[in-house]
Predict the structure.
Amino acid sequence: MFTDVGAAARPGDTGRIGVSAPHPAGLHPSGALPSERFLISENGTRYLLSGDHVRLLDHDHFAFLGRSDDVINTGGEKVYAPEVAAVLADCPAVADAAVLAVPDDRLGQTVAALLCLHPGGSTDAAVAYARQRLAGYKIPRVTATVAAIPRTPTGKTDLRRARQLLRQAARS
């Protein structure tokens, strides 16, 4: 596992998993894998960096944080959408939640959440719940309530539709 600056990770660090051999035989959709997907370690070993972001718990175990596509870079801070969505989904006011990045003029991206609330639940309650459990930069700055979170046939959040719903809510 390697940190974002390419150093070998120590317990508590976050970073990406590196695979030294064998490297996958498949190609990136655009052809060869981009050079930024590879890292040469201090001892000269070539690693393919996966899109999996993890936190190293000890020298043998890590916690999965999300895929590269799940990372929201807000003002230089990395936010893992699945982490925020899990906290929101644990809130008694929330039946289901989806978290994604939306453009922000000042921060580049900001955290946004689509919330499907239980009867009597409120967005304020969900945000307050998250505020007690997450760092301030991880709290959704944009929220919208929906009757159901849009999902793909495989159950993943339909990000295109989710962004449309957030834009519609912003115009209302």
